[in-house]
Amino acid sequence: MSVELLNVPGRQTTPFYHHVSVATGRRIIHIAGQVGSDDDLQLVEGGLAAQAERALRNVVAAVEAAGATAADLVKLTMYVTDWTPDQLGELGAGLAAVEDVPRVPASLIGVSILFEPGYRIEIEAVAVTD
């Protein structure tokens, strides 16, 4: 399986994601929303950065459980509670702490609340593999 990550010529780029991913493969893996909880389903402490890091680590674990790797990711959708643009640095720091995850196309959607109070981020993912 291969994933080609592209940016649209002439459009502003960001270090957090690419605009386009072109994937070839036969298996499409959809990962349900992963949150910032540990293996015992306890919310991690440390705010948005800590929860973003743990949620992305949980995405990687889910992809691996499906027999793929982080390199097979092609799209992330992030839901963040009480989002304001000034939180981008904190969010980016949490995501960047997870090594070997390509900066695939991503959407960030601000929401008022997730399934339970205290949770700040939920990440859905799509991966493609052979």
Task: Provide structural commentary.
With 130 residues, the protein is an alpha+beta fold. It has one domain (2-129): RutC-like (60s Ribosomal Protein L30, Chain: A). Helix content is 22%, strand content 33%. It contains two helices and six strands, in the order βββαβαββ. The protein has helices at 47-65, 88-96; strands at residues 2-6, 20-24, 27-35, 73-81, 106-111, 121-129. It has a four-stranded mixed β-sheet. A two-stranded antiparallel ribbon has the order 1-2. Strand 4 (73-81), helix 2 (88-96) and strand 5 (106-111) form a beta-alpha-beta unit. Helix 1 (47-65) packs parallel to helix 2 (88-96). The mean pLDDT is 92. Pfam families: Ribonuc_L-PSP (PF01042). This is RidA family protein. InterPro entries: RutC-like_sf, YjgF/YER057c/UK114.
Mean pLDDT: 92
Radius of gyration: 14 Å
* Tally of DSSP β-strands: 6
- Element-level helix/strand string: EEEHEHEE
Quick recap:
Pfam families: Ribonuc_L-PSP (PF01042). The chain is α+β, with helices and mostly antiparallel strands and 130 residues long. The chain has helices spanning 47-65, 88-96, and strands at 2-6, 20-24, 27-35, 73-81, 106-111, 121-129.
Question: What are the SSEs and their pairings?
Answer:
Layout: E1 2-6, E2 20-24, E3 27-35, H1 47-65, E4 73-81, H2 88-96, E5 106-111, E6 121-129
Parallel strand pairs: 4-5
Antiparallel strand pairs: 1-2, 3-6, 4-6
